[in-house]
Design goal:
YfhD family protein; 2 helices; YfhD-like; 57% helix; 61 residues
C-alpha cells in the first residue's frame, strides 16, 4: 500500500526531467524540411501546427 506513494512521486519527477536545464531540452522537432519541395497540403499542415504552437505557448504563460 505504501509503495504506490513512492512510485507516484518518482514518476512525476521523471516526467519533468529536473536535472536537464530547460534551455537544453529538445522541443521534439527533429525533422528536416525543405520549403522548396512542399506542396499545398504541407503548407496547410505547417500553418495549422504553427497556430497550435502559438495557442499552447499563450496557455503556458
Amino acid at each position: 500500500m505504501g509503495r504506490s506513494r513512492g512510485q507516484r512521486s518518482r514518476d512525476k519527477n521523471k516526467a519533468s526531467l529536473p536535472q536537464v536545464p530547460k534551455n537544453m531540452k529538445s522541443d521534439g522537432i527533429d525533422v528536416e524540411y525543405s520549403q522548396e519541395l512542399a506542396d499545398h497540403a504541407d503548407l496547410e499542415a505547417q500553418a495549422r501546427a504553427n497556430a497550435a504552437n502559438q495557442r499552447t505557448s499563450k496557455r503556458k504563460k
